[in-house]
Amino acid sequence: MLTTRRLPVGVQDFEDLRTTNYLYVDKTEYIYRLINRGKPYFLGRPRRFGKSLLLSTLKAYFLGKKELFEGLAIAEPEKDWIEYPVFHIDMNVGIITDDASLKGRLDVVLTDFENKWGRTVNNDDPATRFEKVIQQAYSQTGKKVVVLIDEYDKPLLNTMDDITINDKIRDSLNGFYGVLKSADASLRFVFLTGVTKFSKVSVFSDLNHLDDISMDERFAGICGISETELARYFEPELQALAEKRGITRDEAFAEMKKLYDGYHFAKECEDMYNPFSVLNTFAKRDFAYYWFQTGTPTFLIKMLKEGNVDITDLENNIYISAASITDYRTEWNNPVPVLYQSGYLTIKRYDSAFDEYVLGYPNEEVKYGFINELLPIYAPQWVNSQNFSASRFVKCLLKDDVEEFMTSIRAFFASIPYDLSDRTERYYQLVFYLIFTLMGQFIRTEVKGARGRADAVVETADTIYVFEFKMEENASAEKALEQIDNKGYLIPYTADGRKLVKVGAEFSAEERILSRWIVKS
């Protein structure tokens, strides 16, 4: 069965979507609740999560375009459909890398507004012009102004690696966004979206009544696709995907869940799928890391490497207080809140006794995509020169060639420049973790995550491999094998029926290479 329905891949304009017959996941019930309970809002969500389409939908509503909402949840309860002056500002347009380019972007935006409503000041200050044009629109129409700002923080995120430029941009934005407080009497509705809620930007420090709905359970599903919505809106696409991949509908659904589900934006809420990856998967009828193909901010990788974060803890073991996760301070020594806000970590559970969250990867796309980004940072020379893929290691074990596998591992470590300042025991343990975790894309692997387990367990159709690496001084492959036996690492697998293989390896502390290993069946 094939489906020819139009999927809105990359479509961010609500009017275009509704007038050209694209499939729309109805979010207007959330919009109706928003417009009837308050005025100034902020919503933080990861990139490519539907924030722009949400603002475009709000714009169409406040322009009174009733015809676009026929058949949607908002159509019946809404009676007025009043047209307001709408100021829609998209900070994601153009490349803003310094204060000059920021002011250039603001000049373009404000000139557009002034061409419509008139310019009453000769001052070139963006904040002054913004406040005056709002007053002009209000005065001419008798209706208060709606301000919608998309990706308000993009100029700050673009310059995170340059503190001097970042501070200048923050100062400029402080004045511009501060207008949302001074012009409050002229405003009907204000909605800002972004990734990160910068605590030192005036809109958050001064506009105290701004309602942050980023972690509000009532609005957890306002962006993204819930599991309920996936089943309700995309059944034909699920069937077509299954047919194209030669699997059942339920198998296709399970693969979607494994790859793209798992986001939680509140203490208790339904799982949310990444909409960008879902739509691309259905459009192309193939599974891939679509969200990661759009790029990973380099400042995040830098923050993670320089911050005090154990990479091996990112799979459901990062604890953060409720105060910290909502504090939104992008300090270089604490990248965890930014990793959560950016979508690389999500809420796994909430502990009310201690008022803290446990964070981890939301799904396999994020887990493997992120680790693929990290490995070149820790082993750049080998990865770049050898066109690295974890599949090269996996293929050795699939043909039961442990010697080739271990030789490849040794070659990998031998290629790492000897003069790296962070070549510590912990560094090599981390690289082991990254390699074995990436192998999990192709076969079942378990990397040591708790006391009393082998360093790594790899399962193929016929064999279970248990690895133990000894890296401390006077380490030996024999001691590694003894530990596998003495700690009972094989016991959980003895009834499995597959062949069991023990691999004990020693890492030379002096030479910093994988020097010996012993394989026993």
Secondary structure: elements and pairs:
Blueprint lengths: L13 H6 L8 H8 L4 E5 L6 H12 L23 E5 L8 H19 L8 H16 L3 E6 L3 H5 L4 H20 L4 E8 L7 H4 L5 E2 L12 E2 H7 L1 H11 L3 H12 L11 E2 L1 H10 L5 H4 L4 H9 L11 E4 H6 L8 H6 L4 E6 L4 E5 L3 H15 L1 H7 L4 H8 L3 H13 L10 H15 L4 E4 L8 E4 L3 E8 L6 H10 L12 E10 L4 E8 L1
Parallel strand pairs: 1-4, 1-5, 2-3, 3-4, 13-14
Antiparallel strand pairs: 6-7, 8-10, 9-10, 11-12, 12-13, 14-15
Quick summary:
The protein has 521 residues and is an alpha/beta fold. It is built from 22 helices and 15 strands.
Index terms:
521 residues; alpha/beta; five-stranded parallel sheet; five-stranded mixed sheet; 22 helices; 15 strands; 43% helix; 15% strand
Account of the 3D structure:
About 45% of the residues lie in helices and about 15% in strands. It contains 22 helices and 15 strands. Helix 19 (about 390-400) runs antiparallel to helix 20 (about 400-415). The longest helix has 20 residues, at about 165-180. It is elongated and about 85 Å long. The chain starts with 13 loop residues before the first helix and ends with a strand. The mean pLDDT is about 90.
Strand order of the largest sheet: 2-3-4-1-5
Specify the structural class. Answer: alpha/beta
- State the major sheet: 5 strands, parallel
Spatial shape: elongated
Helix content class: 40-55%
Number of strands: 15
| Head-to-tail CA distance between termini | 48 Å
β-sheet strand percentage: 15-25%
Helix segment tally: 22
For the residues shown, what is the average pLDDT?
A: 89
CA gyration radius, whole angstroms: 27 Å
Low-pLDDT residue intervals, each spanning 5 or more residues: none
